Amino acid sequence: MTSAAERAELWVGAAVLVVAAGFLVWSTAGSRLGARLAGGYELRAAFPNVDGIEVGTDVRVAGLKVGRVSAVDLNPQTYYAEARLRLPDTIRLPSDSAALIQSDGLLGGAYIELQPGGAPDNLAPGDEIEDVQGAVSLISLMMKFVDAQSSEDSP
Q: Which keywords describe this protein according to UniProt (predicted)?
């Protein structure tokens, strides 16, 4: 016969397991496993520079989050970084859409902004977005500005 203390320990143990399972589900929501389980479809985009982009990075349309980056790999033939973008089935982009790497601010993180085009046909699952713009380095922009200013000051 079990005592009240043993039953209380059993219920507390069960509650701990439920909470742990909840944290496991929550932690995998932004990972590849979470993206695969979420459904939708993938598009590809090859960028010359993906600084700040990694698995789980937001994909936005008109500033609204519509998906996530599910993978980023280096193409050994082109030396471009190929990002796979997971989007919900409800978002269909025209075939002439663009993908740009944007920054949330000076110190903010990066995300991929999709700009829908006007073509009558849509990108199919697995298609590549051809019109891309990679990440812009703030340091290189500042160096170009400094170089331009110093060349103007030179006689």
A: Membrane, Transmembrane, Transmembrane helix
User: Do you know the residue count of the chain?
Assistant: 155
Q: Give the domain ranges of the chain.
A: 1-30, 42-143
How far from 113 is each of 2, 52, 97, 101, CA to CA, in Å?
60, 13, 10, 6
**81 by DSSP, 3-state: which?**
strand
pTM over 0.85: no
Q: Cα dist. 122→5, 28, 103, 131 in Å? A: 63, 30, 27, 14
Please write the tens of the pLDDT for every residue from 34-72: 445 457 999 999 999 888 899 999 999 998 999 999 999
pLDDT value for 33: 47
Q: Which two tokens stand for residue 36?
A: 């695969």
Q: How far apart are CA 147 and CA 135, in angstroms?
A: 21
- pLDDT on residue 145: 78
The DSSP annotation for 17-65 comes to: HHHHHHHHHHHTTTSHHHHHHH--EEEEEEES--TT--TT-EEEETTEE
